[in-house]
Design a protein that fits this description.
Blueprint lengths: L1 E7 L2 E5 L5 E8 L4 E9 L2 E9 L6 E7 L8 E4 H18 L4
Antiparallel strand pairs: 1-2, 1-6, 3-4, 4-5, 5-7
Length: 99
């Protein structure tokens, strides 16, 4: 299965998703830089990797055939996350008198 391989500071993480998506996100703000590898698979939000990036560090991303995902460190049910977002939005709209 086609997937992504991320290499950073000696860590190699591989992931693919049969149903949805795998993403590598590099976030840059005034105070920090970080890299994350996450996605949605089997109706779960999965995070395989997260790390700060420091000046001069390298990351390597490859598209590869991958037979097995690396171990994730966070997995949350996607429906639970959507329900929490819905509840927060509903509360906000009620407080504003829009519901």
């Amino acid at each position: 299965m086609k997937g992504l391989e991320l290499e950073h500071n000696g860590n190699i993480v591989r992931a693919f998703s049969e149903e949805n998506a795998v993403c590598i996100i590099i976030s840059i703000s005034k105070e920090s830089f970080d890299v994350r590898m996450n996605g949605i698979d089997n109706n779960n939000f999965v995070e395989w990797y997260e790390s700060d990036l420091k000046t001069g560090e390298n990351i390597r991303i490859k598209v590869k055939d991958i037979s097995q995902n690396s171990q994730f460190y966070i997995m949350k049910n996607r429906n639970d996350l959507l329900k929490k977002e819905f509840d927060l939005l509903e509360k906000e709209l009620r407080e504003k008198g829009l519901l």
